[in-house]
Automatic annotation (TrEMBL), chain A:
GO terms for cellular component: endoplasmic reticulum membrane. Belongs to the EMC10 family. Residues 276-295 are annotated as: Disordered. It is found in: Endoplasmic reticulum membrane. Its main location: endoplasmic reticulum. This is ER membrane protein complex subunit 10. It is a single-pass type I membrane protein.
UniProtKB/TrEMBL annotation, chain B:
It is found in: Endoplasmic reticulum membrane. It comes from Papaver nudicaule (Iceland poppy). Residues 764-981 form the ER membrane protein complex subunit 1 C-terminal domain. Component of the ER membrane protein complex (EMC). GO terms for biological process: protein folding in endoplasmic reticulum. Pfam families: Beta-prop_EMC1_N, EMC1_C. Residues 1-22 form the signal peptide. Keywords: Endoplasmic reticulum, Glycoprotein, Membrane, Signal, Transmembrane, Transmembrane helix. This is ER membrane protein complex subunit 1. It is a single-pass type I membrane protein.
């Protein structure tokens, strides 16, 4: 339970990191200047620490993750785009590692994306889209192993949402094993309405990609026991009772006055060394209401 | 901030009002009504066992069997079989049983005739689906039992009439045999099963006691057979060949089969086309339908055919009825202009003239006659009289006797397919003095009685009078708008294509209209109504005009043209209608109205074009302004794909005009077919009003994500798509999605392992509640997902609010990346669910209730607070203050929270809630075979006095108080004076 929450939190945090990062600007040179030749740029999403791809593995037994017979293979699939109602043409490539689990499932990890820069004609088309407040559309195959699979996954955005300094885009790819269910494509932040007409200063793409797998629904702690009896083994760490508060955390409000009383008593006792031993008790008695008042 | 405080106060308020929808015994019927229906009658069997008990047993298309009173049309008893349990055959046997054969001939049940108790039920095994035949021989005994012969699922069964035990079973499903008839030609043990194998005619001679096949005879008829077989006499049958132009009379007795062919054109001159056999059980005679004419042909023992009578376009022909020894009578009904003609003929003696010929004036709103059943009785003058039960085009059931309609039932209301509401007209100024005087007197009398009741002075008669007065208070059934908005018209569309307007006060039918444009015609052979929309809802400045509704239908079939009809909501007159040049796949009401307050609608056809209605230049202008903001999605359930679309530009195809738009696909979500299948979707009601945009959680405001463009989708593994128990917990899982329908963005996605459908869901405000089955816990579960908007969290800053820098009023674009936070929780729930709805109120302040249509056909109101994802085992005092209920694993079912109290809404299919002007109250209309209407107040009625509040008592108290003040004042004056004189 708490583990899942933790993973979920990680995911949220990483998303936040993902869209706030601007560190890819250093790659801008490689994208080339306006009208330059298209250079495929590899955004190593794992080595550059700014984009994490949180992989939520399906809720399998954790030990399986370490099993040795998992095999990896590299796969590629293309991103295609269209301007308004034009036909789709390839514009970039996703590469990823396909991890096969011993229980038969397959997941993608280490997704990398390389995008071609716009050609001159594409820039013109894109400018036209910006002018008309039209849609910039992309599509991906629905199955990465045998593209296009059942059908293409289409997503679109109003072209005016993309330009900032460069062209900022954000992909969230929802996966189920080797199938792509949906891709959320858009600007990494807000796209205010009404959308102003603005040309990008740099014709280079600043891409952020996130892979998402399905999460498991949380269950109320009260029924986890039933589920364990029912034979589910992945309850490891889910049934941890709430962390017991430390003694200090529970009783500080009593401890502090007590310490003060004691300290008070001690200092007073030190100030009056000539008093007989019986006086110490008296002092302590006198100090208690004072401490109460302080409290 | 002010809003936050308000929210907090409201939450506090809602906590202290513990809702309960229970009512007292004497409140039943005050604000609720319940109507019982049976649906369109398929089969009817009269029983005239004793003179005192005049009843008819009917089975209907809604899978109801019922026993009706022949004098008044009331239901004596009724049983609603499940929606999959279609009744094939119905019969009365041995004087005291009703037998029904249902579910494709696999379930045979016996019911006790007088009280409808089920006597026994028998499941019949079989291999292949086939025609089902129920045959009750009168004199076949097996020991002491009578035998019932049932042909179903490809097998012939003999069933004992006492306990339903299957005595023997004979599989006749071999070699693609189609059994058409089971008959017992002579008194004795031998029964015949007769059918076709391709063009071969086959008879089986079977010993009814043992099930042994005594003889199998077959004979090939080269040109083949088509359609039905008609049993004519002991050893004679009549069939038609494949072309439908030749009548074949088949003699099959004595192990010999011989065919006699007669061309139809020899009997009827100038005949061309195909004939078909009209199923009738006339002896020695067969009825054939040739185009619009029905001919009766006598079949002699030698197989000769002889034309007896020709009837032009009859609407219905009844089964024959034996009147006296060897005498058969049957009825023919013909439709006339606003009348019907019913003729009862003698089957044996055609020359003797008609036994009866009556013309009955018929309401045109009932349409044509579809079925007729007749029954005879003995008149006072000892002659035979006939009464006829007729089923009309609008599914109503009428009993005709002596040329009059004895009673009628509007059973079309058992099959409501869509509904909407309409406000009543505003009360006109100026009421006559006499009326005022009368009502004043009544008012005074009523209040006097009520006062007596309150002061416990009322006699029992008075109490009855008070109750009667409350029940039929003229206030609630008035035809004008009331202050609280309780009185409305419920406009319902039934499967027969008829519209009814029901008054919410007492449930009476205010008007009904059998849509002329939905009648069968050559251009539109099979019209069906699809949906009902509010077309024109005039507000203040256009109150002179009546509101109207739009009825959308289709001519049947996927590419058939659509039909539109506009109906006045007050008068029930059809204002306009049109048959469209395109099909209708979906209808999108736009949030725009033109200057006459007609709502703009986009109709999508199957080719991906959108058509704008109304077709006026003004509407076009309005639509074009909204063009870039119109988005919709289509769910392709068969392919498990959801696609988002938008409008592009004016159509370019041949014959298109400027009211037609091309569409383009914007996004798609493709569910992998090997692992996910869409089983349920839910979306927010577009008219829903949300009062508070934020929720206080631990003294901090959380903003609800209130996009109207959210869609809830539930998918299951293909293996789990079947019935519960068809998949193991490992095989089946449920995945739910929250999808933004503008961009196709998946906002939330979560999977439930070991869960299975059916899934029912409701979506309201920022939460969705769904019901499914947990295979591992072997219980039903309900889950809640609440979605919160994190991007608006900075709006809480009070300095921004003060400095006017908050962006609460700035438009929110779907193209911005949403930052959402989701809270969810699951609870067990005992009932399985038929349908779910959520209460809705005028301003959205009142807390919500989930209305659950349970499997027991009741409606349960469950407070939303039980489905709060924040419930914890030990809520902190702050949380308790907020109204959080301690966590439990199951949702409570409080018996008092059934809004249907003791009543059942048989065959429950839908629940609709309608807000009233009074914030605390909403109207609930639930429909199925029955209709039930009531009012609910999820947080109790906090904004008005109850109806039985005694104003007179209040007045009396005030008067008494004033009098007491005067008396004490006078007394104190006197005392003061005395003091001064002392």
């Amino acid at each position: 339970m708490s583990k899942l929450n933790f993973i979920y939190l990680c995911l949220l945090v990483s998303c936040v990191i993902a869209f706030q990062s601007d560190e890819l600007l250093q790659d801008d040179e490689e994208f080339g200047l306006e009208g330059g030749l298209p250079h495929p740029v590899h955004l190593d999403l794992d080595s550059t620490n700014n984009i994490k791809i949180p992989i939520i593995t399906p809720p399998v037994i954790p030990s399986i993750r370490k099993s040795v017979d998992d095999s990896d293979s590299k796969i590629q699939f293309t991103l295609e785009h269209a301007f308004g109602d034009s036909d789709f043409v390839p514009t970039g490539t996703f590469t990823a590692r396909l991890k096969s689990w011993s229980h038969g499932g397959q997941t993608l990890t280490k997704l990398r994306f390389s995008r071609n820069t716009f050609t001159d004609s594409e820039k013109e088309e894109f400018k036209q889209l910006l002018k008309d407040d039209e849609f910039y559309r992309i599509r991906l195959p629905s199955n990465v192993l045998s593209p296009p699979g059942k059908d293409y996954i289409v997503s679109s955005v109003k072209a005016r949402c993309l330009p900032r300094d460069g062209l900022d885009e954000h992909f969230v790819i929802h996966m189920e094993s080797v199938n792509i269910l949906a891709v959320n494509y858009g600007s990494p932040g807000a796209c205010p309405y009404p959308r102003p007409f603005k040309l990008p200063t740099k014709w280079s793409f600043n891409s952020h990609t996130v892979l998402r797998n399905s999460e498991q629904a949380p269950r109320a702690p009260a029924f986890v026991e039933d589920i364990i009896i029912g034979g589910e083994k992945n309850a490891e760490g889910e049934n941890v009772p709430a962390v017991e508060k430390t003694f200090w955390a529970k009783y500080w409000m009593y401890l502090i006055p007590l310490v003060l009383i004691v300290m008070n008593a001690v200092t007073q006792a030190m100030n009056m060394p000539e008093e007989p031993a019986a006086g110490g008790a008296q002092v302590a008695q006198r100090a208690a209401p004072a401490a109460n008042r302080r409290r | 901030m002010a809003m936050v405080i308000r929210v907090f106060l409201l939450l506090l308020l809602s906590f202290y009002s513990i809702p309960s929808s229970a009512i007292y015994e004497d409140q039943v019927g005050l604000m609720d009504w319940h109507q019982k229906y049976i649906g369109k009658v398929n089969q009817a069997v009269f029983h005239t066992q004793k003179a005192g008990r005049k009843r008819v047993v009917v089975s209907t298309e809604e899978n109801v069997i019922a026993s009706l009173d022949l004098r008044r049309g009331d239901i004596f008893w009724r049983h609603v079989l499940g929606s999959g349990d279609v009744i094939d055959e119905l019969d009365i046997g041995f004087g005291k049983y009703v037998f029904t054969l249902s579910s494709g001939g696999s379930i045979l049940r016996a019911w006790n005739l007088p009280d409808g108790q089920m006597v026994w039920e028998s499941y019949l095994q079989g291999s292949t689906p086939s025609k089902s035949i129920l045959f009750i021989p009168t004199n076949l005994k097996y020991g002491k039992d009578n035998i019932i012969l049932v042909f179903g699922m490809g097998s012939l069964h003999a069933v004992s009439s006492i306990d339903g035990e299957v005595l023997w079973r004979k599989d006749l499903a071999i070699e693609s045999l189609e059994i058409k008839q089971v008959l017992q030609p002579h008194d004795g043990d031998i029964v015949y099963a007769i059918g076709f194998v391709g063009s071969q005619f086959v008879t089986y001679e079977i010993n009814a006691r043992s099930g042994e096949i005594l003889k199998r005879t077959s004979e090939t008829f080269p040109s083949g057979f088509s359609g039905e077989l008609s049993y004519v006499s002991n050893d004679m049958l009549v069939a038609l060949d494949t072309t439908g132009s030749t009548i074949i009379s088949i003699r099959f007795g004595d192990g010999q089969i011989s065919f006699y062919k007669t061309a139809v054109s020899d009997l009827v001159e100038n005949f061309s086309g195909t004939a078909s056999i009209v199923p009738s059980k006339l002896t020695g005679m067969v009825a054939l339908k040739l185009n619009s004419v029905v001919v009766f042909v006598r079949v002699t023992d030698s197989g000769e055919l002889e034309l007896v009578e020709k009837i032009d376009s009859p609407a219905a022909i009844s089964d024959p009825l034996s009147v006296s020894e060897g005498q058969q009578a049957f009825a023919v009904v013909q439709n006339g202009e606003s009348r019907i003609i019913i003729t009862v003929k003698q089957a044996n003696d055609w020359s003797g003239g008609n036994l009866l010929k009556e013309t009955i004036v018929m309401d045109q709103q009932r349409g044509n006659v579809e079925k007729v059943f007749i029954n005879s009785y003995i008149r006072t003058d000892r002659s035979y009289g006939f009464r006829a039960l007729i089923v009309m085009e609008d599914h109503s059931l009428l009993l005709l006797q002596q040329g009059e309609i004895v009673w009628s039932r509007d059973d079309g209301l058992a099959s409501i397919i869509d509904m909407t509401t309409s406000e009543l007209p505003v009360e006109k100024e100026g009421v006559s003095v006499a009326k005022v005087e009368h009502s004043l007197f009544e008012w005074l009398k009523g209040h006097l009685l009520k006062l007596k009741g309150t002061l416990m002075l009322a006699t029992p008669e008075d109490i009855v009078a008070i109750q009667g007065m409350r029940l039929k208070s003229s206030q609630k059934s008035k035809m004008t708008r009331d202050h609280n908005g309780f009185r409305k018209l419920l406009i319902v569309l039934t499967r027969a294509g008829k519209i009814f307007a029901l008054h919410t006060g007492d449930g009476r039918v205010v008007w009904s209209l059998l849509l002329p444009s939905f009648k069968r015609s050559d251009a539109c052979p099979n019209p069906t109504g699809l949906n009902l929309y509010q077309w024109q809802v005039p507000h203040h400045h256009a109150l002179d005009e009546n509101p109207s509704v739009l009825v959308v239908g289709s001519c049947g079939g996927p590419n058939a043209p659509g039909v539109l009809s506009f109906v006045d909501s007050y008068t029930g007159k059809e204002l306009d209608s049109s048959t469209l040049g395109h099909s209708i796949d979906h209808i999108i009401p736009l949030p725009v109205t033109d200057s006459t307050e007609q709502r703009l609608h986009l109709l999508l056809d199957r080719e991906g074009h959108a058509f704008l209605y109304p077709r006026t230049p003004e509407a076009l202008k309005l639509c074009q302004a909204e063009l870039p903001n119109i988005y919709w999605y289509l769910i392709e359930a068969d392919k498990d794909i959801i696609r988002g679309h938008t409008l592009r530009k004016t159509c370019t195809f041949e014959g298109a005009d400027e009211y037609c738009f091309d569409t383009r696909e914007l996004w798609s979500i493709v569910f992998p077919s090997e692992s996910e299948k869409i089983i349920a979707t839910a979306k927010r009601n577009l008219n829903e009003v949300v009062h508070t945009q934020a929720k206080v959680v631990e003294h901090d405001a959380m903003f609800k994500y209130l996009s109207k463009n959210m869609l809830f989708v539930a998918t299951v593994s293909p293996k789990g798509a079947g019935e519960i128990g068809s998949a193991t917990p490992e095989e089946s899982s449920l995945v739910v999605y929250l999808i933004d329908t503008i961009t196709g963005r998946i906002l939330h996605r979560v999977s439930h392992h070991a869960a299975q459908g059916p899934v029912h869901a409701v979506f309201s405000e920022n939460w969705v509640i769904y019901h499914y089955f947990n295979l591992r816990a072997h219980r039903y579960e309900m889950s809640v997902i609440e979605i919160y908007d994190q991007s608006r969290a900075e709006n809480k800053d009070i300095w921004k609010l003060i400095l006017g820098k908050h962006d609460l009023s700035s438009p929110i674009s779907s193209y911005s990346r949403p930052e959402v936070m989701v809270k969810s929780q699951s609870y067990y729930f005992t009932h399985s669910v038929k349908t779910m709805a959520v209460s809705s109120t005028a301003k959205g302040i009142t807390s919500k209730q989930i209305l659950i249509g349970t499997i027991g056909d009741q409606v349960l109101a469950l407070d939303k607070r039980f489905l709060d994802p924040r419930r914890t085992l030990n809520p902190t005092p702050a949380e308790r203050e907020e109204g959080l209920i301690p966590l439990s694993d199951a949702l409570p079912i409080i018996p008092q929270s059934f809004v249907t109290h003791s009543l059942l809404v048989e065959g429950l299919r839908g629940i609709v809630t309608i807000p009233t002007k009074l914030e605390s109250t909403s109207l609930v209309f639930s429909y199925g075979v029955d209709l039930f209407f009531t009012r609910i107040a999820p947080s109790r009625i906090y904004d008005s006095l109850t109806e039985d509040f005694s104003y007179a008592l209040l007045l009396l108290t005030i008067v008494a108080l004033v009098a007491a003040i005067f008396v004490t004042w006078v007394m104190s004056e006197k005392k003061e004076l005395r003091e001064k004189w002392r």
